[in-house]
Amino acid sequence: PLSERANLAGVRHIVLVLSGKGGVGKSTLSTELALALRNAGKRVGILDVDLCGPSIPRMLRVQDSSVHQCDRGWVPVFVGHDTAIALMSIGFLLERPDDAVVWRGPKKNALIKQFVSDVAWGDLDFLIVDTPPGTSDEHISTVEALRPHQLLGAILVTTPQ
Amino acid sequence: AEVAELRARLRAVRHTVLVLSGKGGVGKSTFSSLLAHGLAADETKQVALLDIDICGPSIPKMMGLEGEQVHQSGSGWSPVYVEENLGVMSVGFLLSSPDDAVIWRGPKKNGLIKQFLRDVDWGEVDYLIVDTPPGTSDEHLSIVQYLSATHIDGAVIVTTPQEVSLQDVRKEINFCRKVKLPIIGVVENMSGFVCPKCKNESQIFPPTTGGAEKMCQNMNVSLLGKVPLDPEIGKSCDRGQSFLAEAPESPATLSYRNIIQRIQEYCEQHHLQEEKIM
C-alpha cells in the first residue's frame, strides 16, 4: 500500500542490530551508534522491536514520553533538540513502565508490522532497528516487513564467551 | 484430555522450579545448571533440567553435553544424563549441527515445549528445573499453562544490578503475578567483582537505582542472594563443568550454595504445607 512505502520512503539506510544472545549490548550499541551518527551530522531514527524488554527509551532518557498520532500514523518521540533522534518503542505505549507485555507471537507480529509501516519517520539517513535476543517472531516479522525497503544489512553483537 | 496426559506424565515430579528473567544474559542458564548440580549433589535426589530456550539453548554446552542426541524408547524420549541422578532435555540435542538456527514462530515453539513435557520419560523426579529464554512471551505462557497440569513450586527470577536489567525484571515479576506463579525469590548475579590480585571490589554493573535489593523491597519479593562476578564461572560454563565443583572456594560458590539451600527449604516447606492441606 502507498502509505506503507511512504512512511519509510524518506529513510536512506536501514540497519538491523542483532544477536542470538541476550544481554550482550544490542540496545547499548544501537543507542551509541545512533548518537555517533547524529553527532556526525546524520538524521537518525531508532526502531525498538524488543516488545518484552524495551531498553532504548531509558537509555535515551525519554522513558516518560508518550507518542501521538498524525494523519500518517504515529509520530515518533524526538530525543534532543536541534538534530533530534526519532524513536519508536513499545515502551511509549505502556500505561505503566512495569507492565509486562505478555503477548504471543501473532500479536507481536501485528505490532511490529505497524511499527514498520505506521510510524511517520520523515527523512532519515539511518534507521537503526534494535531487536530482542533470539531468532523468532520479532525477527522474522521485522525482516519480512522491511524487505521491500532499503535494508542495508545487519550488525551482529556478541561477547567473548 | 491433553491436560490429563500431561498430568499423568508429570505425576512423579515432586517439585518444579522455573528460572526466569525479563532480561537476557543475566545468568539464567548458568544458574539453572548450577541449581541442578547443587541439588543433584545429594545422590538420593533425582533431578531433571529442562531447557525451553528454543532459539538459544545454552544448557547442553553448560552441562558438557554438546553433541549428545536424544534416544527414543517405548516409554518416550530419554533425557540425556549427566549423572545417574541428573537428566537434561533441550532442543540443542535435536539439532543436526550446533550452529543450526531454530527460526520458529510461537506456535511451533509451543508445540515442542508440550512435547518435552508429554513425551520425555523423566521417571520419578524430586526436582524439575525449567530454564527459560528472556521475555514474557510464548514460551513463558505455554510452560505455565502446561505445567498447571502438575504444580509449580515457584519461580526464581534472575537479574543483574543495573536499572536496564531491573526494568525488565519488574515486568517479569508482574508477569508472575498475572499468571499466579509464586515467586520464590530474586537472585542478583554479577553483583560486584573482587580483583584476584589486589582484592579490591569494583561494581562492574553499578546498581544506580539500588539494585535487586531495593527492587525486592519495593515489590515485596524475597532477595535470595547476590552472586559476585567470577571469570571462572564463564570459563566453567564454556567447558561444560560445574563451577561449584571447579571452584569450591570462590565467594560466588558460597553465594550460589546459600541460594540453592534457600530454594530447597522453600520447596520442602511448600510441600509440607501442601501435605497438611491434603
Describe, in plain words, how this protein is organized in 3D.
Chain A: One of its GO terms (molecular function) is ATP binding. Chain A: Keywords: 4Fe-4S, ATP-binding, Iron, Iron-sulfur, Metal-binding, Nucleotide-binding. Chain A: It comes from Zosterops hypoxanthus. Chain A: This is NUBP2 factor. The complex is a heterodimer of chains A (161) and B (278). Chain A is of the alpha/beta class. Chain A has a single domain, classed as P-loop containing nucleotide triphosphate hydrolases (Rossmann fold), CATH 3.40.50. Chain A has helices at 2-9, 26-39, 56-59, 105-117, 137-146, and strands spanning 11-18, 44-48, 68-70, 73-75, 77-79, 85-89, 124-130, 151-156. A 6-stranded mixed beta sheet of chain A has the order 5-6-2-7-1-8, sandwiched between helices. A two-stranded antiparallel sheet of chain A has the order 3-4. Chain A starts with a helix and ends in a 5-residue tail after the last strand. The model of chain A has no long low-confidence stretch (mean pLDDT 92). By secondary structure, chain B is of the alpha/beta class. Chain B has one domain (1-277): Rossmann fold (3-Layer(aba) Sandwich). Chain B has helices spanning 2-10, 28-40, 59-62, 106-119, 138-146, 163-178, 211-219, 231-239, 243-246, 251-277; strands at residues 13-20, 47-51, 71-73, 76-78, 80-83, 86-90, 125-131, 154-159, 183-188, 193-194, 201-202, 223-226. An 8-stranded mixed beta sheet of chain B has the order 5-6-2-7-1-8-9-12, with helices on both faces. Chain B has a two-stranded antiparallel ribbon with strand order 3-4. The two termini of chain B are 25 Å apart.
